[in-house]
Amino acid sequence: MQNRILIPVGALILTIVFTWLFYQEWSFFRWMDSLFLTGLSLLVVGFMMILIEGQFFSAFIRSTKHFFASISKKEQVIREVEEKKESAPGYRKHFPSSKIYLSTGVTFCVISLLISVIYVYFGR
User: Fold this and answer.
1) Is residue 87 part of a domain?
2) Does residue 13 form part of some domain?
3) What is the pTM of this model?
4) How far apart are CA 75 and CA 67, in angstroms?
5) Is 76 within a domain?
6) 66: CB partners within 8 A, 6+ apart
7) Dihedral (CA of 84, 85, 86, 88) sign
8) Per-residue confidence of the chain (124 residues) as pLDDT tens digits?
9) Which stretches are transmembrane (predicted)?
């Protein structure tokens, strides 16, 4: 429950800090740029968490280990002596919730896009 409030509020404060750090002065449109970039960053982090939780990269790791073990004569001899079979790595990573990052990122991007579209079509 606390992460549901902490992450969006922290990201919103981070957009204000980014605006002052990168642009040296605050304006609404520069803050919108910062809001959009923070939203994109949160989307990337959320999707990376989903990929890692879903073990997307485990097939690549397993095939690479199998390839190097098959071309290494030393590894083959060790397996024959110890009578080992190939075993899949038992690594699994769980993150608290990637939905918070995804929803915050989508919200930030949509808000900044809507305000930009409203300004371009109706603000002139």
Assistant:
1) no
2) yes
3) 0.73
4) 11
5) no
6) 86
7) negative
8) 566 788 888 899 988 888 888 887 888 888 999 999 999 999 999 998 888 887 777 778 778 877 777 777 777 777 777 776 655 555 667 777 888 999 999 999 999 999 999 988 987 6
9) 5-23, 35-52, 100-122
**Domain with 109 in it:** 2-55+102-122
DSSP symbols for 5-64: HHHHHHHHHHHHHHHHHHHSS--HHHHHHHHHHHHHHHHHHHHHHHHHHTTTTHHHHHHH
Does residue 84 lie within any of the structural domains? no
Helix (H, G, I), strand (E, B) or coil at 1: coil
DSSP reduced 3-state for 84: coil
Q: Which candidate, 111, 95, 117, 122, places its Cα nearest to that of 15? A: 111
